[in-house]
Design a protein that fits this description.
Chain A is of the alpha/beta class. Chain A is built from twelve helices and 16 strands. Chain B contains 24 helices and six strands. In chain B, a hairpin with a 2-residue loop joins strand 4 and strand 5. Classes of the chains: A alpha/beta, B mainly alpha. At the A-B interface, helix 2, strand 2, helix 3, helix 4 and helix 6 of A face helix 1, strand 2, helix 10, helix 13 and helix 21 of B.
Amino acid sequence: MIHATRRRALALGSLLLATAAAPAAFAQTAKPTGEPVLIGVSGPLTGPNAQYGAQWKKGFDLALDEINASGGINGRPLAYQFEDSQSDPRQAVAIAQKFVADPKIVFEIGDFSSPASMASSPIYQRAGLVQFGFTNSHPDFTKGGDFMWSNSLTQAEEQPQVAQYAVKELGLKRVAVLHLNTDWGRTSKDILVKAVRDFGAEVVATEGYLPEEKDFRSTLVRVRDANPDGLLLISYYADAALIARQLKATGLNKPVVAVGSIYSPKLIELGGDAVNGIYTNSQFFPEDPRPEVQTFVKSYIAKYGAEPDAFAARAYDTVILAGHVFRQYGTERRAIRDGLAEIKDVPSVIFGKATFDKETRRVVGAQNARLVIKDGKFVVWDRSAIPTR
Amino acid sequence: MTSWLDHTINGLIVGNIYALLAVGLALIFGVSRLINFAHGSVYVVGAYIGWVAVAHLHTPLPVTILLVAAGSALLGLLIERFGLRPLQGSTKIAPLLATIGISFVLDQIVQIVFTPDPRALPSQLPDWRFQIGGGTIGALDILIAAIGFTSAVLLFGFLRFTKLGWAVRATAQDRDAARQMGVDVDQVNRIVFAIASALGGLSGLLVGMYYNYIDPAMSFQATLKGVVAEVVGGVGNIPGAIVGSLILGLVESYGIALLGTSYRNLFAFILLVVILVLRPNGLFASKRQLPPEPLTGTFIAPSKPVPLPTPALLAALAVAAVLPLVIAQPYLLQTLTNAWLYALLGISLTLIAGTVGQISLGHAALLAIGGYTSALLTLDLGVPVGLSILAAGFVAAGLGTLLAWPAFRLRGHYVTIATLAIGEIVSLAILNWESLTRGPIGVFGIPPISLFGYPIESARAVYWFTLAILAVLAALQLRLLRSHLGRAWRAVRDDDVAARSYGIALDRYKALAFITGGFAAGISGGVTSHLYSFINHETFNAQLSILALTIVILGGMGNVFGAIVGSVLLIGLPEVFRVAAEYRVLIYGLVLLLLIRFRPQGLFGTV
C-alpha cells in the first residue's frame, strides 16, 4: 500500500513541505499575533497513563511549531491548554465543563481512556464543542453524538490486515491470540479472531490479560499446551516486550505477529534480543519514504533527539488536521464540526490523506506497512525472506 | 502432566519475587504494627537507583546491589524520621495514612525526575538458562531466590540470637514496656525501617532486571501483592512471609492454568479473604501468639468533635443551595457536584470506618455495585432512571453487606486488608462476568438522569439533584447517630468486648452499618453512572477507595459534616492545583501528610 500511494503522496508532501516544514525558508511569513486560537486538551499528565500524555505533548508541540511558523491560523497563533485528567472520568467531566464554558476553547482533544472520554462526551455534545478523540478506538466513542470525532484507527480496519499478514502472508494455520483485557483489546480480539477464521485458519487459544500484568509465564504455558503454530498479540509495546522476553523462558519458539500499537522504539529497548523476529503491521513507520512521514520524523528528532513512536505521530497528525480545518472553515465551534465533515485529503502521517466518513465520523484508509524486527530494528518485511520454520 | 510441573515452577518463580516484598513488609509490621503502603514506592525508588547505577555509572552487579540497598535504606530512614516518628502516640490509623501520603509523594517525584516512560533495566547476570520441565529458569531466578532466602535466614537469626534482635522483638510485643526496660525504641524502629527498605529497594532492582522493565506506576501492585503474601504467611512472621509468597505465587499460577490470565488477581484476593476468615493470624501463627492487633479502643483517636449547631448546618446548606444562582460557571458546579457525590461516599465510609471502626479500603466496590445496578436496570430492563438509582442503593446495601460479611469477625488492620481484597474481587468479577456486565467493553449509552420524565441535564440541575440527595441522607445519618443505634455502633468501635458483654450482637450491628452506608454509596454510584453515560470496571478503582478514606480522615472519623467538607476540599484541591499539572499529586500528597501530622483527628474531630 505504501507503494501505491507514494506518488500521490510525494506531490502532496512537497506541498506540505512548502507550507509547513520549512520555517527558515519562509521567514518572511508574518509571525502570527493576537489572541491565540485555543484547543483544549484533556489527558493524563500524572497517574498510571502519564507516559502517553507526555508523548501527546511532544507531538502537539511539534505540530504547533509548524503551524505557527507558517502563519498560524490566518494570522492568529494556534495554542493548546492541557488539563491533567489522570484519565480519571470524574476529572475529565469537570474539565469538560471547564472547556465548554470557556469561549476561547474552540476544539477539544482527548481524553486518553474510554471511561474518561466517554464520560465527558455528553457534556461536549450538549454544549456543541467538538470532542476529538485520537486514541479512542472504542467502537461506541463516536456514537456519543455528532460532535464526537476520531481519527483513531478502527479495529474493523486494522485487525483484518493483521490477520491477513499472519495467515495469508506468513502461512500460519493454528494461532493463539493474547490480548489486553481492556475495551480496546477486547474489541480488537473479537474482530481479529473472526478475520483469522475468515482467512481459513484456526484460533486455538485466546488469553486476555490485565494491563498491569508483568508475568506471562503461566499464560504462555497455557498457550503452549494449545499447540499453536504462531502467536498474535494485541498489546501495547510495554506488555509486548514482556511477553516476548518470557516466550523463551517457557520454551515457546513460534512466530509472533502483533498489532501496530506495539510500534515504538521502546519495544526494542525493553525487549532486547527477544523481540527480534516479531512481525507487525504499522500505520506509522519512520523509514516510510513518504514526505509527510520524513518531515515529521526529521523535525521530531531535531526537536527531541529521539525517534517518535505511533502515539506522538497520532498527536502530531491531530493538531495538523485541526490546523487545516481552522484555516479553511474558521474557528467557530459549530463551523469546525461542519468543517470536519467537509474537509478532504488532509496530509497525514498515519493516513496519507485523511478524509472523514460523515456517518461514522472516523477516518478510513490508514497506511499499512508490513514490518519485521531484525537485529533490533524495524524493517519492511520482504516476502522472499520468509523464515523456513 | 508436564504443564502442571511448569505451572508449579512458574508459581514458585513469581512467589519468589513476592517474597522479597513480603519480608520487608513483615518486618515493619512486626515492629510497628503498620502496613507500610509506602513499601511499593521504596521498591520503585530502588529500581530507579539501580537503573542510574547500571545505565549511567556502569557499576558491576555487586556494586549496584550495594548502592541500591544503601540508597533505599537511607530512604527508609528518612521515611521513619520525617514521616512516621512525629506520629508516635497519635492514632493507629495516622501512620497508615501517612505511608499512603508518602507513597504519593515518592511515586510522583520519581515520575517527575525520570518521566513516566517505562525504562529497560538490563540484567547484569549472564543469560544462563536451565531446562526444567517444558520451560527454563535463568540465573536471575536463582539469584532472587538466594537473596530472598538468605535475607530471611539472616533476619531470623538476627531477631532470635542478637541483642538488638531481642530489642526489636521486645518492641514488637510491647513498645512501652520495652522502653521502660531501657530499649531505645526509636533506634529499633530506625534499624527496622532501614533493613526493610533496603530489601524493598533490592526487590525493585531485581524485579526490574528480571522483566527488563521499570516504570513509576508499578508501586501500587507491588504493595498490594506484598501485603497479600504477608497476610497469607501471618503478618509480622518472616519465614511465614516467604512461604506465604510462594503459596500466593502457586495459587495464582494454578488459577491461570484453570481459568485464564484475567483471573490471576481474583485467585490472589480470594486466597487472602479465605485465609483471613479461617486463620486471621496467617497460616503459620502459633496458638499461643498474642493477638497482633492493639486491643480495642486505640485504633481511632478519641477527640472532642467541633460543635456544630443545627442552625449553622442549615445555613451552610442554604448557602450551598443558592450557590448556582450566584455562580453560573458550570465548571465550578460540576466540581461541586463531584464533591457531593464523593461526600455521599464519604458519609457512607465515615459511618462504617468512623462510627463502627471498620476501616474499609474497598469502598469503591459499593460505588461499582450501585453504578452497574442502575445502569443495567435502565438499559436491560427499562426501569426508569429515578427508580433505578433507588434500586442501586438497595442492591449496594444488600450485596455490600453480604460481601463484607467475612470481614465482620476481623479487627483493626485485618478489616482494612480484607475490605481491600473484597473491593478488588468485585472489580475483577465485573471484568470477568461478561454476560452480565459486558466485561472490559463497559456499559455504554446509560441514559441521563431524569425524574418523573423531566430530564436533569444542566450542570445546575444535576448540582441541585445531588445536593438534595446528600442533604437527605446526611440528615438521616445524623439522626441515626443520636439514636440508640448510633450509641450501639460507637460502643462496638470503642470496645467490642465490652459491647458484646452488654448484649450487643456485633455482627448484626456491623451489618446494619454496612446496610446504611452501602445505601448511600450505592446511590452515589448510581447517579455517577447516569452522569457519565459510560462506566467500566476501571471507573470505580482502588485509588478511589483510598481517596474516600482520606476524605473521612480529613473530616474526622464518624463526622458527617466533616466528610462533606473533606470531600469538598479533596475534590477542590486537585482542581486548584491543576495549573501545576505535573506537581499536582505531589502537592496533594504533601497536604495530606501535613494534615495527618498536625491534625490527625481530622478537621472536625471524631464523633
